[in-house]
Amino acid sequence: QVQLAESGGGLVQAGGSLRLSCAASGRTFSRYGMGWFRQAPGLEREFVAAISWSGGGTYYADSVKGRFTISRDNAKNTVYLQMNSMKPEDTAVYYCAFSYVEGATRSQAYSYWGRGTEVTVSS
Questions:
Q1: Between β-strands 2-7 and 92-99, what pairing exists: parallel, antiparallel or unpaired?
Q2: C-alpha–C-alpha distance, residues 36 and 44, integer Å
Q3: CB distance 119 to 88 below 8 Å
Q4: What is the pLDDT of residues 51-110, one digit of tens each?
């Protein structure tokens, strides 16, 4: 079992920044990929970003490319999502997820999920 705990959500004005963190615990001894997804009210959960074990491979949805950066600190079993130049359409609950597949962009590839952290971007 792997447990994931997100933090760092909140309210930010358009154009502002937030950094989300996700701490993993439990059976994390193997190489694993991490990802961030989000779900806005009334919409399906969508892929935001993913990162490989080494951090050398990063993948982004077109909607966030150039504005968001995913990174990880394996010594701390923590993954981050730095969000800059935020827009009202970034408003959603953000979830981190754990996958035994590195760089996966499909939610079906992720085995464990956090409870989510809410992000609201005001215009």
A1: unpaired
A2: 14
A3: no
A4: 999 989 999 999 999 999 999 999 999 999 999 999 999 999 999 999 999 999 999 999
pLDDT of residue 27: 78
Residues in the chain: 123
d(CA 22, CA 62): 22
Contact 24, 6 (CB under 8 A): no
Tokens standing for 18?
């937030």
CB 84 within 8 A of CB 67: yes
3-state DSSP call for residue 80?
strand
- What is the residue-averaged pLDDT of the chain? 95
- Three-state SS at 92: strand
**Token code pair at residue 34:** 């991490």
For 59-71, how does the pLDDT look when each residue is reduced to its tens digit (9 = 90+)?
A: 999 999 999 999 9
CA-wise closest residue to 40 among 82, 95, 81, 85: 95
Residue 57: how many other CB atoms lie within 10 Å: 12
